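Hey, I'm writing a tutorial for new members on how sequence and structure tokens pair up, and I'd like a real worked example in the thread rather than a made-up one. If someone can provide the structure for the chain below, I'll link this post from the tutorial.
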Amino acid sequence: MTSQTQPAVRELILSRTLDAPRSLVFKAWTDPKHLAQWWGPHGFTIPVCELDLRPGGALLVQMHGFGQTHEMKGAYVEIVEPERLQFTTTLEDAAGVSFLEMVTTVTFVEHDGRTLLTMTAKVVKAGPGSEIPLSGMNEGWRQSLERLTAHVASMTKQKIAPFLWFDRNAEEAANFYVSLFPSSRIVGVSRYPEGSPGETGSVMTVTFELAGQKFIALNGGPEFAFTPAVSFVVDCATQPEVDALWDKLCAGGKAVQCGWVTDKFGLSWQIVPSVLDELLQDENEAKSAAVMQAMLQMIKLDIAELKKAYDGA
């Protein structure tokens, strides 16, 4: 981590590279359950963490440590997921009068599955009583980012990973899948050693990540093949995302029904708009049934048509 202080403008700039995709690091900053696990110096706990994640939304964080409780209030100024956050923070005295106000900007830049985090904290108001928090600002944030790094590492641990058996094209398949999703990468390749079942020096396994999740592909020979009994569900926020993934997976593969597609390697996928669960779980049984009937008639799922069925019931 690098740091830079500029006392003349009371600005602190910190940067740190984390071994995780930026979507995960961004989540650690914006999900109160995660923020409470790392915010503050070593030895501090966060009994209260409330985040209204929208421009103008309030944030409230209480830090407790060494027999004292410090309350920080603020508001979000800018939210560009998963690239940038900007928010204000205020410390108040016992009478509720603010004595320290700051604007903090955090950027998240991803490269090869790792995230460069840069945080700029700038003082906009410093009154009587601000001397102690300002003097400890650099060290406090340094320790907070140490805790963030450890917490993000715990978030990336995946106890169970899909293990996919291919004939001889595991590396080709892994490279194809990595090209489909953001925050994806090839992690490592192992090769068959001499005296093993495979050709010496040929690819045995490929470890890769899709949207931050670990997969392993094996070149195991022609004995086993994929079936639709196992498929991977992809949650899509928009129709363009559905369309783009559908077209890429169908190329050389086969469209099936109800959002299912088999790719050119024989692996089955379900390309599902996020809104579908919400519509199917609606308390109005007539509406959810209408959505179900509309979906059953579709090959590729169409958000507009699903909503039309919902509204028309």
